[in-house]
Amino acid sequence: MAWDRNQMAARAAKELQDGWYVNLGIGIPTLVANYIPEGVEVTLQSENGMLGIGPFPYEGAEDPDLINAGKQTVTDLPQTAYFDSSESFAMIRGGKIAMAILGAMEVAENGDLANWMFPGKLVKGMGGAMDLVAGVGRVVVVMDHANKAGESKVLKRCTLPLTGQKVVDRIITNLGVMDVVEGGLRIVELAEGVSDEELRASTEATIVA
Amino acid sequence: MAWDRNQMAARAAKELQDGWYVNLGIGIPTLVANYIPEGVEVTLQSENGMLGIGPFPYEGAEDPDLINAGKQTVTDLPQTAYFDSSESFAMIRGGKIAMAILGAMEVAENGDLANWMFPGKLVKGMGGAMDLVAGVGRVVVVMDHANKAGESKVLKRCTLPLTGQKVVDRIITNLGVMDVVEGGLRIVELAEGVSDEELRASTEATIVA
Amino acid sequence: MKKVYSSAAAALDGVLKDGMLIAAGGFGLCGIPELLIKAIHEAGTKDLTIASNNCGVDDFGLGILLSSRQIRKMMSSYVGENAEFMRQYLSGELELEFNPQGTLAERMRAGGAGIPGFYTRTGVGTVIAEGKEHKDFDGETCILERGIVADLAIVKGWKADESGNVVFRKTARNFNVPAAKCGRICVCEVEEIVPTGSLDPDHIHLPGIYVHRLIQGEHEKRIEQRTTRKEA
Amino acid sequence: MKKVYSSAAAALDGVLKDGMLIAAGGFGLCGIPELLIKAIHEAGTKDLTIASNNCGVDDFGLGILLSSRQIRKMMSSYVGENAEFMRQYLSGELELEFNPQGTLAERMRAGGAGIPGFYTRTGVGTVIAEGKEHKDFDGETCILERGIVADLAIVKGWKADESGNVVFRKTARNFNVPAAKCGRICVCEVEEIVPTGSLDPDHIHLPGIYVHRLIQGEHEKRIEQRTTRKEA
C-alpha cells in the first residue's frame, strides 16, 4: 500500500497550476514532469540558467552545452530562454518562480527543512536549495515518510542542519499529503490504503485537527 | 588668449589612453570625441546602455531607438554592444570605465564636485553624474575657470550641493590643467598665453608647489 | 495561459488602482511604453507614484499623466525636459524623489531580484545620502539603498513571442529590463508579437517569466534631440 | 590594444600569482574554462582561492588543480562529484566555504557591479547565516552578503569578437557572466574568435569592457551525466 515514487510524483504534479513557472529538485521531484495534467501548461526552470526544460535528448543528440541542474543532458522547447546564473537566482530570489518541488531528509511541523547535509558524512553542498526555499512562492516537499531505519522524517523539530527556516508549505510522502499550518501539520489527503491512524502513528510531528 | 572650448576638449583628449573605455559628459566633454589622438583606440560608453558610440547619423538615418545619454541620435560602430541601464551602471559603479570627462559648476581643492544643482533655480536632476564620479577609475573635469560673473569656479570649498565628495582627479579649464593633490591643487600645465601668476590669481583654491 | 491582450486598455484591465506604484521603462522618449501610458491616461487612475528615469515631455510619454494631474510622486534621476513638471513641482503639487540614475536602475533590479537592500558609494557626501544608513566596507563609506518592488511595471519591447519572451532594440532596452523585473505584475507593449519559438533562446533579453500581459501596437517613437551630421 | 592572445599560457602570462583569488565560470563541467585551467595547472601557481560553483571531477576541470594541490580554498555551492576533493577536505588540507548557489552568483555580480554588500533572505536560520549581520526589511530578516572581487576571472564563451564582446551558448553561460564581471582582470577562452562587427550588438552577453584577454582553442566539453530517451 501507500504510494510509490511515481504515485508520489503524480500526486505532486496535481499541485501545478496553468501558467506557472516551477523548479523541480533532483530525485522524485524530477519525475513530476512526467505527470503534468492535461491542459496545464507549466514552464520548468533550471537554476543553471534555463526556462523551459525539454525532455532528455535522443541518443546522439546530447549537447554538452545543454544540461539541467542535475547535470543531465536535456533539450529545449519553443518557449525556452537561457540566462546566466545571477539572473537565474534573481528570478528565484525575486519570487518569480511560483513553486519549487524538492526532496528532503527531514521536515519539521513549523516548516523547517533539512535537505543538504548529514553531519559527519560527506558534505556535497546545498547547491541552489537554500535560494529556492527562501525565494519561491510555494515550497512542496516530496519524500518518503520514514528513513531507512523506519523513523519518521516528519518531525517536531529538524535534527539536521537546516536548508531553510519555516519555508515548507506542503509535504507529500508515500503515506499522504500534509500542510504546514498554525500549531503543526494538517492532513490534507491519505495515500491509497493508508488510514488516518496509520499516518498519525508514523508521524513524529504534531498533527492538528 | 587662454583655450577656447575646442582647445579645452583637445587638451582633455590627451588624457585618453589606448584601449580605455570612457564616458564623456554633456557639453565640452562631448567635443572630446573629435580630438582622440591617432593610434589611441577609445570606446565611448553611453550610460543609457551602449558601449561604442559612433558619430551622429546622416540626415534621414536617425533611429529613435539609438540615442546617447544626451538624448541625441547617434550611430553604432563594429564593436558596439547594447545592454540595459542596470548593467550599464553596474560597469560604471564597478570601476570598469577607466575615465569620465565631465563638466562642472564648481570644483574644490579637495576634489569635491558640484555639477547638478543651483538651489532656488530649476533643478533638473543629477542623471548619471553621481554614479559616474563614484564609480569610474579617474574623473577629469573640463569647464570654464570662472563663472559668468567672473568668479573662480575652482574653489577652496564648493558652495553648491555636491555631486560627489573627493572625486575629481584633474581639472582642465580655459586657463590650464590642475591636479587635485594633498593640500590643494598642483598646476600641471598652463593654457597658451596664460601665465602662472594669472592662473593663480584667477583661482580661489589653494595652489600647492 | 494566454498572455496576449487585444489592446493596452484590455491589458491594464483590473490592474490599475489609485495610489499605486508603477515602474516605467524608457530613457527620455526612447523605449517608453507610450501605448500603456496613454491607456493609463484614459483610465484616469490617479495619485500615482511613478519610478521612471525621466518624465516624458509636456505632450508625450509620462508628461501626459502630469498634465492630467494623475501623478502624485516621481522617482527619477532627470526631469529637465518638462515645463509642466517644473511648474507642479515648484508649486508643491508634485512630489519628487531624486535618485542617481544608476541607483534607480539598481534599486529596480534589486527589487526584482529579491534583494531588499544594497550598499553603494554613489551619493555619499551628497543630499542623496541624507537620512540613509552609512556603512564602511574596506575603508570605503557606502550608503544603504532599498530595492524597489512596484505594484505594476509598464515596459516597451521590440518583439515578443506569445510566451512573453522579449527582445529589445539598441538603446531602447535601457530601463525596460530592470523596470519589468521589479513589477509584481508586468505589462509589456511591443512592436511585433511573433509565434513562440521564433526567437533564439540565446537572444532573449527579458524571459517570459517576468511578463504577465502583452500587447502589440503602433508606436510613434518620437525623437527628442534629432542630431545629424552633414554628408561627407 | 590587442586582446587576442595565441594560447592560454600566453594569455595568463604575468597575471598569475601564488595566493590569488580566481573566479571561474562553469556549472559542473558545462561551460568551464578548461584550457585556462590546464594552463594554470602547468604554470604551477599555488595557494589559490577559487570561487566556482563546483570543482570539476577528479581528472577534468578544476579537479586537476586539486590533484596537484594548487588550491588552498574553494568558495562553492556543490562539490559532490570529486573524490579527491572530499579526501583533501576531510583531511583538512583544503579549506571550503560553502555559499548558496544564488548567493555565490550574486556575490560575483555584486563585486563586478561595485556593490560591496547586499541583503538576502537566503540562508537565514542556517549555518550560512552564522557570524553574518542580520537586518530586518519590512518584517523579513535578511543577512548581509559581501560582493566578491577576484584578482582574476577565467571564463569560457562560445564566440567572441576581437574587441572582446562574448556570446555564450545555451546553459554554458551560467556562472561565466558573473565570474567575468567580478575579475580585476578577465581572461576568456572561446571556441571561435570572429572579426569585430560580426556579432549583433543586441546579442552580446558579455560586453568587451569586461574582457581583457582572449584566446581561441579546441574544447573537449565533457558531458557529466549523459542522459537520453529512447526513440519513440
TrEMBL record, chains A, B:
<comment type="similarity">
    <text>Belongs to the 3-oxoacid CoA-transferase subunit B family.</text>
</comment>
<dbReference type="InterPro" id="IPR004165">
    <property type="entry name" value="CoA_trans_fam_I"/>
</dbReference>
<dbReference type="InterPro" id="IPR037171">
    <property type="entry name" value="NagB/RpiA_transferase-like"/>
</dbReference>
<protein>
    <submittedName>
        <fullName>3-oxoacid CoA-transferase subunit B</fullName>
    </submittedName>
</protein>
<dbReference type="Pfam" id="PF01144">
    <property type="entry name" value="CoA_trans"/>
</dbReference>
<dbReference type="InterPro" id="IPR012791">
    <property type="entry name" value="3-oxoacid_CoA-transf_B"/>
</dbReference>
<keyword id="KW-0808">Transferase</keyword>
From TrEMBL, chains C, D:
<dbReference type="InterPro" id="IPR037171">
    <property type="entry name" value="NagB/RpiA_transferase-like"/>
</dbReference>
<protein>
    <submittedName>
        <fullName>CoA transferase subunit A</fullName>
    </submittedName>
</protein>
<dbReference type="GO" id="GO:0016740">
    <property type="term" value="F:transferase activity"/>
</dbReference>
<dbReference type="Pfam" id="PF01144">
    <property type="entry name" value="CoA_trans"/>
</dbReference>
<keyword id="KW-0808">Transferase</keyword>
<dbReference type="InterPro" id="IPR004163">
    <property type="entry name" value="CoA_transf_BS"/>
</dbReference>
<dbReference type="InterPro" id="IPR012792">
    <property type="entry name" value="3-oxoacid_CoA-transf_A"/>
</dbReference>
<dbReference type="InterPro" id="IPR004165">
    <property type="entry name" value="CoA_trans_fam_I"/>
</dbReference>
